[in-house]
């Protein structure tokens, strides 16, 4: 049996996969990665899809990025109802879908709103399980004249591939944010220690007394201790109480 040669559809899909594989963290944010995913999906998938990323957090589910208002709105509907494809995929780690929003028996309220907004198919692919992050990449496809089975196959294949760079970008941004918070904490500690050293030297205080002096000014002026310390280090002037 011979395989078909020069299938333009297969070539377009492979080209999209190749572009997804070349996404660089240095050149993108999570939002721009998602927009890139959506742009590529628009090239190879029927139904003018829009995408979003759901993350399950302790305080509840959240959409951390969306390529269009439709995706964000349908995510929010599911959060309000407490159930839907995006939350189920994130919770269970299983690909979840509403293949036809106009004939859905599961999640009828979600399906009805999606259908009213012109969305024909909903597919949620769980993010890879890593760093204890639970989430899903959601693909909302508008009505299309393409065969339903072909559409489902393409959407599932594309989303399963696209979820990898989306997940990696999310974890990368979280790591950067944590590093920035750590650096800010280290910077705060350094300037506070510097201010304490000056107070200890100038007023012959103990380390605890020096910190209490900074804390007192912080409370009296409703200013962060770090800012009080930084101002003192820069000006050399310490308010007397």
Automatic annotation (TrEMBL):
Signal peptide span: none
Residues of the ANTAR domain: 172-233
SUPFAM superfamilies (UniProt xref): GAF domain-like
Keywords: Transcription, Transcription regulation
Keyword set includes Transcription regulation: yes
Family matches, as InterPro entries: ANTAR, GAF, GAF-like_dom_sf, GAF_ANTAR, WH-like_DNA-bd_sf
Keyword Transcription applies: yes
Source superkingdom: Bacteria
SMART domains referenced in this protein's UniProt entry, alphabetically: ANTAR (SM01012)
Name of the protein in its database record: GAF and ANTAR domain-containing protein
């Amino acid at each position: 049996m011979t395989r078909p040669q020069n299938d333009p559809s297969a070539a377009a899909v492979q080209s999209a996969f190749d572009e997804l594989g070349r996404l660089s963290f240095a050149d993108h944010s999570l939002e721009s990665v998602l927009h890139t995913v959506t742009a590529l999906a628009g090239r190879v998938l029927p139904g003018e899809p829009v995408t979003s990323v759901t993350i399950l957090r302790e305080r509840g589910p959240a959409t951390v990025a969306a390529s269009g208002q439709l995706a964000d709105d349908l995510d929010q509907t599911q959060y309000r109802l407490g159930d839907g494809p995006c939350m189920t995929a994130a919770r269970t780690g299983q690909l979840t879908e509403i293949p036809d929003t106009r004939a859905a028996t599961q999640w009828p309220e979600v399906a009805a709103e999606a259908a009213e907004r012109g969305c024909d198919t909903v597919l949620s692919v769980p993010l890879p399980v890593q760093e204890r992050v639970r989430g899903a990449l959601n693909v909302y496809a508008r009505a299309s004249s393409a065969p339903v089975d072909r559409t489902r196959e393409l959407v599932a294949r594309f989303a399963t591939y696209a979820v990898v760079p989306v997940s990696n970008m999310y974890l990368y941004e979280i790591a950067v944010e944590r590093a920035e918070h750590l650096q800010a904490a280290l910077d705060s500690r350094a300037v506070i220690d510097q201010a304490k050293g000056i107070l200890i030297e100038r007023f012959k205080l103990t380390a605890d007394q020096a910190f209490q002096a900074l804390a007192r000014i912080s409370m009296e002026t409703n200013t962060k201790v770090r800012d009080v310390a930084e101002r003192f280090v820069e000006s050399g002037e310490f308010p007397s109480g």
